[in-house]
Request: fold
Amino acid sequence: MKPGRTILPQSYFTRPTVTVARSLIGKYLVRVIEDRSVAGRIVEVEAYVGPDDQACHASKGRTQRTDVMFGAGGIAYVYLIYGMYHCLNVVTELEGFPSAVLIRAIELDGDLIDGPGKLCRALQIDCSLNRADLTSGEFLWFEDRGESVGSGSIEVHPRVGVDYAGEWAKKPWRFRLRNTLAPARACRTKKQGGAG
Reply:
């Protein structure tokens, strides 16, 4: 670990989910690929908050798929949508309260990797990393490199692709870094399974 870089500890992720989501903007997602560390700056995330949140996978109860969300903060929740795209979430809050943050976009080597499926493809993230400890500094982790992001630099939007969630779809729980390489999507897309 280089000076000025800190792996985010479990205590970082046991805080309220929306707080964690917003604070992840400007942090780095680091993946070890063939003994080489690849780091992308996080520029967009979405929060999914507990069993009452109708956009959250856990709103359907504790299942084989969502069991990981009921675990400790700082654990990876990776799932497959459309049978072909993986999505990376980090579990948040205290054990027993199923919440997570979906990582939607990163800037990597000057390019914008926009969309959770593209992100997972670029960083070779798949279901083999489901339940991985994202605080251990192995394979995949989050890193603070001391770059501050002011609140005025963060855009707040409704979440994408969760129209089925009714009023919960309007929650302003998607956060995006202002002035990234591409504008934020203003409209919702087809159902993408939500997250968390």
Q: What stands out?
A: Residues 176 and 183 are 9 Å apart (CA to CA). The longest strand covers residues 36-49. The first helix runs from residue 10 to 13. The beta strands are 6-7, 28-33, 36-49, 76-81, 85-91, 99-108, 111-114, 140-144, 154-157, 174-177.
